[in-house]
Amino acid sequence: MANQIENLWREVRELSLGTEIDHLASPPSPVQFLRDYVSQSKPCVISNAIAHWPALKLWSDPAYLTGALSNDLVSLHLTPNGCADAVSQGSTGDLCFASAHVEKVPFPEALQAVRSSSKGKSVAYLQQQNDCFRTEYSTVASDCDGDISWATEALGCSPEAVNLWIGTDLSVTSFHKDHYENLYAVVSGEKHFLLLPPTDVHRLYVRRYPAANYSYYRDSEAFKLELEQPVRHVPWCSVDPYPSPEREASERLIYPLFFEGPMPFHCTVKAGEILYLPSMWFHHVSQTPGDGGYTIAVNYWYDMQFDIKYAYFNFLQSVSYESSSLNPILSWREDEDSESGDADMSP
Q1: Which residues form the JmjC domain (predicted)?
Q2: CA gap 3, 33 in Å, rounded
């Protein structure tokens, strides 16, 4: 079985995905998008798709956003290290799935917290899943389109959620997947994606970790990470694709399937571009700020089809995998009710 699974990683690249992410110079027709990308579960980056958005010109100016959203309360996510929805070490030394401290604050205060973030003290990230762009940021919603028209026609439905993300290079999103077709539009700065197809699930070393939440105490500027009660477990990936030099050797020993397997796909999505990220693709996200000192993105989540591809994925992840030359990988199976939502806590 080991050889067959390892062959699968390579064959899906040779037969379907290639070695690089496709870049389209203009938006595809709905038929082309459905035929060449959605049906093949194949990512692509599209240029010249949002050039008409007022947001591209307006949102790089902090004064514009602060003025437009001066009376709006938004969800501010705070962590000590910029890693929310990620595997972290708890107070007892055990690993847990850590979520950010979240509080509602006026947008001007929140944006200032983002721009003044400092690793080791407090890293602020403006985001809230569950359609935050059309709720918390409705005042500036007209600066963008309500959907991606050619994707809406191709997929046969409107977005279930539209989310806004504002952060700095200190915020990083760990490897995870989402059960949505994701159209990810960058408005300011750049987003850097590492991508792995669903066929590579065993390489991500997904395990179940007890859920925990950060609490932030403003008077002492201290964080405390506490386990949820009652205990809830979340399936998550703990692979760090960019370990520090002093940790790299040990990380390669702990996660050999990731570091010794085929290279992840890499793409940079610049301001004005859209990434189509197919459902169930694993992705790790970092970012580079733009002129305003932050990165901004708007993503559109469309419902995925729970079709034969989903059945294939569930079968694959249920298979115990042991390489003849590497450490055994225990099989795992998701409990959909316990999974954290994008969690694309994607920046």
Answers
A1: 124-317
A2: 33
